[in-house]
Amino acid sequence: MKKLFYLLVITFSCSSFGQNLIPNYEIGCFVDYNKKIINGYYDFEYEPKTSLNVSYQASENFTKGYYFDNNGLKVNGLLKYSQSDRELKFKINEKDVEKSIRASESKGYIIGIDTFSVVKNVIVIGVFGDKLSGKSEFAENIENIGGKQFYKFIAEAANRSSYAKYIVKQSEASDFETFQSNKGKFKKLAADIFGSDPILKSDIENGKYDEEDIPSMIKIFKYRKLYGRDQKIFYNSSWDETDNHDEGAYYAKIESVQDSIFHLSYFFKNDIKIYEGDFTSFYPHKKKGVFVFYYPNGKIRKQINYINNKPKNVIEYFINGGIHRRYFYLEEDKIMYTQVNNDQGVSIFGSKGSMGKETFNDVITGKDVTYEFKDQQVKNVYYNDVNGDKVYQLCEKNAKPDDFKDLQKLINDKLKYPTESVQKYNHGYALMKLIVEPSGLVSEVELVKGVDMFCDVAINEFLSQFKNQIIWKPGKVDGVNVRQEIILPIDFSIIDTSSYKNHYYNFNPWFFQNMMMQQNMMRAPMGRY
């Protein structure tokens, strides 16, 4: 059975009619559980309002890794950092008794893809405010820029909330220095570290930044240097920034820098262009102006205009270059269409310009999909299956489970985060397709967008027992039960305090805020910052 699921994952990059596709990107036209339309491609702005969740809680789990003792001896085992006492917890195996390792007893440790060093001169938050720690501390290595090594230190305050402090070591011979909350001390150290960048220096002197902005300042400092050297930014398959070019699945080129605006173009590792646009910040990413998305053949697929970091106006194109749809966001979840054309460039809207019907071929799945519009909004979406039966993707009253919590409980009981994926820090959304019959039973299940090989195998094994577990309320059109295709997003998330390199969370204000909330609830960091 395992071999079968691995085969499913390996052949996942081919469509049902034989064409080679880019895995987890060219997925076909769908409508997800939240009524969000996916027009053939899985794009970075996808952010489902409701999703199922498979999470790995770093604060509650030991993770494979190793530490170095004071003699430099590598010790393998299971590790977990405790924010409360700022010590490393270690076990040789699950049955072993836990022991504590102080920073003074170690030269550092590694968990998954992240390295933690021993630092000194750390400013911690005491009962009466900032104070100098009198001992060595563990801190995560987050960046090395021109010999300047930056660290992130995490601990628990007296009120049990988590906080972060950023530390720098300017050279091997220099001391560790902590960026402080005191404005005068912060400005002095920040100007010393980032002063070689004229724009950063000016912004520091003008009071634009404070202690909480250090991650953004590091990114800007790094990216300007990369731009000057015409170097790329590499990302792994989960869109986390990586210095290991061999594990890069994507890369970005900094095309231009004007003051604080960076124009970046993003590519697959085989140089196929994905999209480009302007950013004014990188922690989180803040988008400005028009972003252009491309078909794999290089033609423009979509343009999104961002105002105040939110999408406002969108133009979608056919692969022949003609305009397919224009629409704007009236509210976060409400889209109004101002233009819809067929592939001959003819408007499908009637004389009132607000209703009509179009049928187009989904070149990825091979299906002819029909959209029905009324009052400038999509009302119904459907296609005919191989037997000629109509299957709705969106209808007047969508199919729903009796209780969404039952679905999440089933996920909690049956679908576990693979250890191999946690070790590699692979995360992201999977998209699960199911067909809900008029009876409310699920007849078909399929994974249409995965996370990595190990997660995909786990999902496929879960899907094999999914059909008979949950009864749905079927979709309805004109009061009649209909057959409907449902796309359920599953969020595979590793919950820790590490978000510095995380493209996935930093790209999206909602994700970023959620990560910050999670950090305040956390008790242990484990990877990415």
Automatic annotation (TrEMBL):
The keyword Signal applies. Transmembrane segments: none annotated. SUPFAM superfamilies: TolA/TonB C-terminal domain (SSF74653). Keywords: Signal. Pfam families: TonB_C (PF03544). Residues 415-494 form the TonB C-terminal domain. InterPro entries: TonB_C. GO terms for biological process: transmembrane transport. Residues 1-18 form the signal peptide. This is TonB C-terminal domain-containing protein. The lineage of its organism: Bacteria, Pseudomonadati, Bacteroidota, Flavobacteriia, Flavobacteriales.
